[in-house]
Structures are given as C-alpha cells and as structure tokens.
Amino acid sequence: MSNKTLSNFNLQPSDNRGHLLTEQVNPRSDCLDQLNTEDLVTLFCDEDREPQRAVAAAIPELIEAVEAITGRLRIGGRLFYLGAGTSGRLGVLDAAECPPTFCSDPDLVQGVLAGGAPALLRSSEGLEDLEHAGQKDLEDRDFGSVDCLVGIAAGGTTPYVKGGLAYAEQINALAIAISCVPLEQAVLPCSIDIRLLTGPELLTGSTRLKAGTATKMALNILSTCVMVRLGKVFGNRMVDVAASNSKLMDRALRILRDLADIDRDHGLELLKLSDGSVKVALVMAVGRLDADAARELLLDHDNHLRIALASSGHYLH
Questions:
Q1: Catalytic member of 23, 47, 61, 128
Q2: Which of the residues 64, 97, 125, 169 is marked catalytic?
Q3: Backbone phi, psi, residue 113, to 5°
Q4: Which residues does 239 contact at the CB level (< 8 Å), separation at least 6?
Q5: Do 156 and 23 form a contact (C-beta atoms < 8 A)?
Q6: Alpha carbon separation from 167 to 85, 148, 185 (Å, rounded)
Q7: Which of 86, 142, 208, 218 is most buried by its number of CB atoms within 10 A?
Q8: What is the CATH number of the domain that holds 172?
Q9: Are 120 and 257 in the same domain?
Q10: Which domain does 53 fall in, by range?
Q11: Same domain, 78 and 221
C-alpha cells in the first residue's frame, strides 16, 4: 500500500495495534486451516463460551449503565449507539429491534454507524479513522446533554468512536464505552467503561467473532433491562407490543388470554378499541374502563401497567 493510500485513511506505516488483546494470535487455532470440519466447528463452539464469561465479568458496569440510561430516558433523553464496522452494525441492529419489541418511538434508541446506511451492506472501514466524524454524526441528530451515548469499539482505539465519546463528555451527556481490551491497552473517554475481555479470536483480528458476540449480548442486556425499568414489560411479557401484523396479533391475543383470561373474540374487540395496544386493552378489561380512560390511567403512572392497575385496586395474575 502506498503512502498516498495510507494518508487517505489517516494511517501511518508505523501504526501498530498488535499489542491489543483483540489483535493477538490465539494459540488454539494455529492450525485452523488444517482441521477437519468436526474439529473446526467444535473449536469454535468451545471458544464461544468466552463471550458469556466476559459479559458476566462486566455485570457491575452493566448494572450501572442500565440505571444511568433509564434515569436519562425518564426525563426525555434518548439512547444512541455509535460505532464503525461490526461494532456499529451491532448497535444499529439493537436499535432497530426496539420499536417492534417494545413499541418505542424510533427516535428513542438510535444506531449511528460510520458511513451511514450504505455501510450496513458494504464495508467502509476507512471512515472509522475520522475522529471528527463521530461528533458530526451526533450533532446531525441533535444529540444533547440529556441524551446517552454507548460508544462501541472492540479494540478500543477507533477514532470515530473516541471522538463521539469525547463530545458526549464535553456536553455533559452520558458517555458509556464498550470495548474488548483491557483498560491499560486503550483508554476511552467515558463515565461508564464496559470491558468485555473475550481474548484473541480464532481467526486473528476478526472481532466479528467472540468480541462481536459479547457485544451483542451486552447490548441485549442494556436495551431490554432499560425497557423493563421503563415499564414496557409485565412479568416476562411484551405488553407494550402493538398488534400490527398477524404474528403480533396472535402474540397479543395470547398475552390477553394468559394474563387476564380474555377469550379470542373479546380480545379482538379490545384490540380494535385500543388501536392495537395490548397494555391499553388489559387496563380496559381488568379496570372496566373505556380506551380513553385506560390511556389516561396509564399516563398518570408513567405507563407502568402493574402500578396503574394497583392504584385502582386491580391486579393481573
């Protein structure tokens, strides 16, 4: 690669990230290309126990992050995931799943990927070296002091992510970092530092493997636990789901049946009156209220179904 090409990516020939945990060589896979298929698959399955261990070791930081994010979202803040390459795509994926799972506003959880939408389908890894781009992409979305940023960088050195995190700290937003290297190898500007130490990859440097798996697990925990804390779950049911297609309609009817013993015909009627809202339908049925009164009762209790029903002496089993 010529020096001209290197300069296009803001690199220098002397750049060396080989010391990073995510870039080190895994001795267990020295003969990866010589293994038969059974041994190859078995080795991968064995190594994939590491992401679970790594996430479990980060439980204290994950708890802190869930509580901090929840507090910000309760006062009107939003949650942003920022990353490049695999890390950024994982953030976009988790954000995109929130509206259909929790009926959340699409703006509440947003994924910001270096290179934008085209980078979802085609690699644009060079953009991760533009530190100012992370801040600009956040500014373009009116990221503010009440908002939360989760900057995701497996190797902990991505300039795009570091720039975004530094900007979040500068404006007093909540800055959370997720990386897969020890603190002494890469410092990230943040108030909550989540380290998922999955070790060297079987395919050296391919952080879409164990590092990516651990990151996906951590994001699952963050978004789901935050939504639970915000009252979008009753027991283990997605009561904020909206019956907008046949699959979700079937799920909504089963929730109504299981929680309030509502038969299918009555359930269909309630969902029609509640504009497809399972939570409103449940309050209507149990509290014997019309749709407007049910919505008002929920709003009076921050949309927490259990608390809203208890306030009027009603309970679900």
A1: 128
A2: 97
A3: -115, 130
A4: 232, 233, 255, 259, 278, 279, 282, 305
A5: no
A6: 20, 12, 22
A7: 218
A8: 3.40.50.10490
A9: no
A10: 46-229
A11: yes
**Phi-psi region at 142: left, alpha or beta (left = phi > 0; alpha = psi -120 to 50):** left
Same domain flag for 219 and 251: no
Residue 26 lies in a domain: no
Map 215-245 to HEC letters: HHHHHHHHHHHHHHHCCCCECCECCCCECCC
Quote the number of domains for the chain. 2
127 and 176 fall within a common domain: yes
Beta strands at 192-195 and 174-179: parallel, antiparallel or unpaired: parallel
What does the pLDDT read at residue 245? 87
Task: For residue 97, indicate whether it is catalytic.
Answer: yes
Residue 201 falls in the annotated catalytic set: no
DSSP-assigned beta bridge partners for residue 110: 80
Q: What would the pLDDT profile of 193-239 be if each residue is shown by its tens digit? A: 999 999 999 999 999 999 999 999 999 999 999 999 999 999 999 89
Structure tokens at 154: 């497996």
Q: Are residues 107 and 151 in the same domain?
A: yes
Which two tokens mark 72? Answer: 């910000």
Give the pLDDT score at 120.
85
- Token digits of residue 23: 């870039």
